[in-house]
Specification:
- It is built from eight helices and three strands.
- With about 190 residues, the chain is mostly helical.
- It has a three-stranded parallel sheet with strand order 1-2-3, with helices on both faces.
- Strand 1, helix 2 and strand 2 form a beta-alpha-beta unit.
- The longest helix is centred in the N-terminal third of the chain and has 24 residues.
- The chain is globular, with a radius of gyration of 17 Å.
Length: about 190
C-alpha cells in the first residue's frame, strides 16, 4: 500500500494540484518517473511494475489531453540504475542487481531533463535500456514475465563477488541514514 501511495497516488495528486494552474498560465512542464518495468509484468516485483505502468499510461494520456495548452508531460523510463533502490526493495541479492550493469543516475536525470525541456512525451534512458525495451516489445507478456521472474531470483555468484552498495554518493549517504531517522525503513 505504501508503494501505491508513493508511485500512484502522490504523482496523481501532485499533477492534479499543478496542472490546472499550468494550463491557465498557458505553460508548464511535468516530468513523471516511470520505468522500463512499466512495459512488462514482473513477478516478485508485481506492485512496483504495475505502479510504474500506471505512471506511464497516465503520463502519456495526459500528454495528449494537454496538447495545445502549452503544458507538456514527459515520462522517464530508466532501466537498472546505480541507486540504492535494490537494497531498499530487499532485492540486492537478485540476478537483476548482481549480474547486470547499472546506469549512472546523473545520466538518467540528464536524459529526463533534456526530454522534459524538449517537451517529449516519453524518454527511454540509455542504450542498454533502449535495447531492453526492444526485446520486451518483441516478446509476448507471458515470456517477458517469465524472464523477469528469473532475473528477480537470487544470484548464483559467490557473496564475495556481490555488488555490496551503490557507487552513487547520494545513495550511499542515504543508506547511512536508513534506520537512524524517524520513519525510515529498518532492515
Amino acid at each position: 500500500m505504501d508503494l501505491v501511495q508513493l508511485n500512484v497516488l502522490a504523482p496523481l495528486t501532485l499533477t492534479r494540484l499543478i496542472a490546472c494552474d499550468m494550463v491557465q498560465r498557458g505553460e508548464g512542464k511535468i516530468l513523471n518517473l516511470a520505468s522500463i518495468v512499466s512495459k512488462t509484468p514482473a513477478p516478485d516485483f508485481a506492485v512496483y511494475a504495475a505502479s510504474k505502468a500506471f505512471i506511464l499510461s497516465f503520463s502519456q494520456a495526459l500528454s495528449v489531453e494537454l496538447e495545445g495548452t502549452g503544458v507538456t508531460v514527459t515520462a522517464l523510463l530508466p532501466g537498472r540504475t546505480d541507486t540504492d533502490f535494490f537494497f531498499k526493495a530487499h532485492m540486492d541479492d537478485s540476478k537483476e542487481y548482481q549480474e547486470h550493469s547499472l546506469a549512472n543516475p546523473a545520466e538518467v536525470a540528464r536524459d529526463g531533463y533534456e526530454a522534459l525541456i524538449k517537451g517529449e512525451s516519453r524518454i527511454v534512458s540509455g542504450a542498454q535500456t533502449k535495447m531492453m525495451m526492444g526485446m520486451l516489445n518483441a516478446k509476448p507478456d507471458q515470456a517477458n514475465a517469465e524472464t523477469m521472474y528469473e532475473s528477480m531470483q537470487p544470484t548464483d555468484k559467490p557473496f564475495s563477488q556481490w555488488r555490496k552498495h551503490t557507487e552513487h554518493d547520494a545513495s550511499l549517504r542515504e543508506r547511512e541514514l536508513i534506520g537512524t531517522e524517524n520513519g525510515d525503513l529498518v532492515r
